[in-house]
Amino acid sequence: MNQSPQAAPLPTVAAQALAVLMDLGTATRRQIVERSGMSFPTATLALQELIDRDLVTQSGKLQGPRGRATLAYRLAGRAGWVLGLGVDATDVRARAVALDGTELSTAEIAFERDTPPAQTARFAADLASRLRSDLRSRGEVRAVALAVNTYVPRSFDTPGVNAPNALALCSGFAQHAGLPPSTSLLIENDVNAAAMAEHANGQMVGHNYAVYLQFGLGVGAGLFVEGQLVRGAFGTAGEIGSFPDHWIGPGGAVPTPGELERAVGSRGLLERARPAWTHGEEELCVANVMARAEEPALAEVLAVQAQGVSRVIHAVMCLLDPSVVVLGGELAQFAAFTRPVLGNFRALSSLARLVVSTKGLIAPAEGAALVALDHARAQMLGPTHHRTVPDPTTWT
After folding, report:
1. What pLDDT score does 64 carry?
2. What CATH number labels 203-358?
3. Is residue 286 a contact partner of residue 330, using CB atoms and an 8 Å limit?
4. What CATH architecture does domain 12-75 belong to?
């Protein structure tokens, strides 16, 4: 894929000073010296370099340890920003953040289910264009990351890779978004992105072995081992939606793609609920089934759903032995789903914890913003930056 041209690299000391400001938001020269180990004269030169490049500006004065007011510095207003887009089956959610991680804006656009990937890409591009216009006073977007509800390869250039939906989403977005050549475009699986958000500042913080499980139209797992996201050799790690629905019985040796996803995801739930649905023209959808969960027939349907999901959780736990499992996705937004799943889990007497994500459906967009931020910082800071997302899938 095409490579984005980049500005001349920062000198090492300037990159070190900028890294401190990205971490702290606002810092004095003393704080930069203490955090980086450089001398005061070197810090002065580094800050001037960053000011000359419109990356840093003075932000008034702070009270020093001896009561003296001292100059403070922060990222310049036009230093740039990054954008994460969570692309789902019926909507695109966006989260824009500054280079210090401060949230700048969120937005959302909805569309019909079964919208073709090319049209979905246009919706995502329109949303990105709207945010670029709204945030033009913040400078240009430095990186955009898409978190998509489909398989994402480690590289689109790998021989034999078959990822038509991811390819259509990326190429369509790149075509219609009108991003400048200097802006990087990255792509990640939505479940992996949500797992990154949970591991950065959610229910998985501090857990070296952790699993994020998404149950909705799609079913997937985001896996952390020794504190690192596991993507696998080709990007298919965590694609549990393609597990077989049964291990012995009818069918061939190779399971049908998406077999487990159709069984324990929202489609399977609605198929089982259809015979029990007695509400005429009222739409049979997840929200309405959950709202009527006390009806005996629908309660039985949800009990069967919870049993299947609980078995999936148990299988993943046996494979990875995590200390925490986080439930997310569309179904996890409803207590009528999570309550029996949590009850089944307690019966396992596991040492691990099973918890429900509190991030809601914004989690993939939040994780995508983290991917974009990590990439932008790596490009700006060079070796000074320790990447949290090594080798992301890059379009440009």
Report:
1. 61
2. 3.30.420.40
3. yes
4. Orthogonal Bundle (1.10)
